[in-house]
Structure prediction request, 180 residues.
Amino acid sequence: MDELVPITDAEGFVALYRRESPMLLTFCARRVLDGETALDLVAETFAQAFKGRRQFRGTTEVEARAWLLTIARRQIARYMEKGALDRKLVQKVGMQVPTMAPDEIAEVERLAGLPDLRALIGAELARLTADQREALRLRVVQELPYDEVAATLGVSEQTARARVSRGLRALNAALEGEGA
Prediction:
């Protein structure tokens, strides 16, 4: 196992960033399907890592990568819950979020396989029933609570939950089948 250069000093943290940021960018892009948002999530992840670097007790590069992926998963979950990134921490620690030109964003998305992933999701959505697609649209895209989804669809809340659940299971099965 490779020994980790200590990340509590600036040089060690910069080395960690240079080594792991490409992997994290792909990891985030494949989960949010957007290169620019993925870049923001990577910045958030490293801001959190920088803030907590003194508490990190790992001694190998593998442990550092696992630590960063755990932070990234939390950032993605928070992003998905809130629908927006909290930039306060990035600003607080003084990190500059790099900006990307449209061709750079397209390259990140290409490297992460997003065009194929989007096509797969589109095809799988087309295979769902119209009721499931609409329930997913209301719940996932519109972010409506289940009672409002049910009211909009004119069904019980239980039926609305079932339609969303079936739709998500079908999409998940397709993505797992493709290794996505």
Q: What stands out?
A: Residues 114-177 form a domain with the Arc Repressor Mutant, subunit A fold (CATH 1.10.10.10). The chain is about 75% helix and 0% strand. The chain has two domains: 10-111, 114-177. The chain has a mean pLDDT of 83.
